[in-house]
């Protein structure tokens, strides 16, 4: 049964990012099956990546030994229950990327005794620049862990997370994290225009600043605080801005935002 094919159940934003990352790094589109109820999404995935597409989860899942469950947490139970007979018959490696939903819930909804890996990726996976946290339940053997790791590594960095409870923190930091950076970019872009810069110029300057700063964080070997201090001339412009951020409570705001995301992850697993 396992011919190396992967079935994605759900062909939305995150599935598209993962499939794009896999195909860009050499996986044949034809080895990927996607179940997605929205016809326009199915057509776009087939056209862009050459994947096989299906209307229902069981049609796609029947063709693969690895299942990536990429539907919203709110519909995960119904999707798993619809796949339970197939899961019991075929014993696939199941990867769920859903926020909050626990491996115990997935195992139960799929009928029990399932090899379940929780993966929390993020959308830069599309560029091979993703970050994924992985947690495997006790039914996943060495080969299953290696397969899950290789799959997600083709979309970027992978970290194994030792305790499942920490997956909510991973979700709040790196799963949701790209949105925090995009929000900062939006705010800087608006502020640049408010100071009189033309929209295109503002966009270019913000974009290159974020890119350059991220590269320095990644490549300089120095920590964020050291790099920040080096920009901040005593009594200069950066100090004026940084003091404004600190006075406005930026650090505690970020702490509260991440805590809110962790709480929401826990709530998503509350029923069932
Ligand atoms: N977006 C992100 O950055 C990240 C998302 N995630 C997780 O990924 C999962 C998907 O999120 P995201 O891609 O943003 O959501 P989307 O809504 O973009 O994608 C989910 C897709 O699944 C479809 N769907 C619904 N029911 C079924 C079904 N029975 N069979 C097959 N497909 C179905 C939905 O169709 P319809 O719209 O008609 O319901 C939708 O197109 C979530 O669980 C989320 O927690 C994890 C990491 C990052
Ligand atoms: O917003 C969400 O719930 C999902 C999980 C992480 C990123 N997007």
Automatic annotation (TrEMBL):
Its EC number is 1.5.1.2. GO terms for cellular component: cytoplasm. One of its GO terms (biological process) is L-proline biosynthetic process. Residues 164-268 form the Pyrroline-5-carboxylate reductase dimerisation domain. The keyword Amino-acid biosynthesis applies. NADP(+) binds at residues 70-73. Keywords: Amino-acid biosynthesis, Cytoplasm, NADP, Oxidoreductase, Proline biosynthesis. It is an enzyme of class 1 (oxidoreductase). It is found in: Cytoplasm. Coiled coil: none annotated. It catalyses: L-proline + NAD(+) = (S)-1-pyrroline-5-carboxylate + NADH + 2 H(+); L-proline + NADP(+) = (S)-1-pyrroline-5-carboxylate + NADPH + 2 H(+). GO terms for molecular function: pyrroline-5-carboxylate reductase activity. Pathway: Amino-acid biosynthesis; L-proline biosynthesis; L-proline from L-glutamate 5-semialdehyde: step 1/1. Residues 6-100 form the Pyrroline-5-carboxylate reductase catalytic N-terminal domain. Catalyzes the reduction of 1-pyrroline-5-carboxylate (PCA) to L-proline. This is Pyrroline-5-carboxylate reductase. It comes from Arenimonas fontis. The lineage of its organism: Bacteria, Pseudomonadati, Pseudomonadota, Gammaproteobacteria, Lysobacterales.
């Amino acid at each position: 049964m396992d011919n190396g094919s992967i079935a994605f159940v759900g062909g939305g934003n995150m599935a598209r990012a993962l499939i794009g990352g896999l195909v860009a790094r050499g996986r044949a589109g034809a080895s990927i099956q996607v179940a997605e109820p929205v016809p326009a999404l199915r057509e776009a995935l087939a056209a862009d990546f050459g994947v096989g597409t299906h209307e229902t989860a069981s049609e796609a899942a029947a063709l693969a030994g690895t299942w990536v469950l990429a539907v919203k947490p709110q519909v995960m139970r119904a999707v798993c229950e619809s796949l339970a007979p197939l899961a019991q018959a075929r014993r696939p490696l199941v990867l769920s990327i859903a926020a909050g939903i626990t491996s115990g819930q997935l195992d139960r909804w799929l009928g029990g005794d399932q090899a379940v890996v929780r993966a929390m990726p993020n959308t830069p996976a599309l560029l091979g620049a993703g970050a994924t946290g992985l947690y495997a339940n006790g039914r996943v053997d060495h080969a299953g862990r290696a397969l899950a790791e290789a799959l997600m590594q083709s979309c970027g960095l992978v970290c194994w997370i030792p305790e499942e409870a920490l997956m909510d923190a991973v979700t709040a930091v790196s799963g949701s994290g790209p949105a925090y950076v995009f929000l900062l970019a939006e705010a800087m872009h608006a502020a640049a225009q408010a100071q009189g810069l033309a929209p295109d110029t503002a966009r270019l300057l913000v974009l290159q600043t974020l890119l350059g700063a991220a590269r320095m964080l990644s490549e300089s070997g120095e920590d964020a605080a050291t790099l920040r201090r080096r920009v901040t001339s005593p009594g200069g412009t950066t100090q004026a801005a940084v003091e404004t951020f600190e006075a406005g409570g930026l650090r505690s705001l970020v702490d509260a935002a991440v805590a809110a995301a962790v709480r929401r992850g826990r709530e998503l697993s509350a029923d069932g």
